[in-house]
């Protein structure tokens, strides 16, 4: 279980309430392309995402209730908003 948790942390993080970071530490071996689905975040929410060449190509964030959230892929791509 520890290995799965470690790889998941490399792909998506939600340590701070209201903040979701996608691909914070994508390893080079996975950078070409990939996808994950249904990963649970803090606050009973979930995310599915796909990437290619180390960049997010699609993301689906589902929140159980209305909350202000910040979604970031790196320092240059941060999007504030309300998501549900």
Could you explain the architecture of this structure?
The chain is mostly beta strands and 84 residues long. The chain has one domain (2-15, 32-83). It contains 1 helix and 7 strands; from the N terminus they run αβββββββ. The strands form 2 sheets. Strands 1-2-6-7 form a 4-stranded mixed sheet. A hairpin with a 2-residue loop joins β4 and β5 (55-62). It is globular and about 35 Å long.
Question: Helix and strand layout, with pairings?
Answer:
Elements: H1 2-11, E1 12-13, E2 19-22, E3 33-41, E4 45-52, E5 55-62, E6 67-74, E7 77-83
Parallel strand pairs: 2-6
Antiparallel strand pairs: 1-2, 3-4, 4-5, 6-7
For the sheet with most strands, the description reads: 4 strands, mixed
Instruction: Please state how the strands of the largest beta sheet are arranged side by side.
Output: 1-2-6-7
Shape: globular
The stretches of 5 or more residues where confidence is low (pLDDT under 50) are 78-84
Oligomeric description of these chains:
single chain
What helical percentage do the residues reach?
Answer: 10-25%
Q: Could you give the distance between the termini?
A: 29 Å
Radius of gyration: 12 Å
Mean pLDDT: 79
Number of helices: 1
**What share of the residues does DSSP label as strand, in percent?**
over 45%
């Amino acid at each position: 279980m520890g290995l799965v948790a470690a790889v998941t942390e490399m792909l998506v993080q939600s340590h701070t309430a209201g903040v979701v970071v996608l691909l914070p530490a994508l390893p080079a071996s996975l950078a070409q392309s990939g996808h994950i689905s249904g990963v649970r975040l803090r606050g009973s929410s979930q995310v599915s995402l796909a990437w290619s060449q180390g960049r997010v190509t699609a993301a689906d964030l589902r929140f159980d209730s209305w909350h202000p959230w910040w979604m970031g892929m790196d320092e240059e791509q941060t999007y504030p908003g309300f998501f549900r």
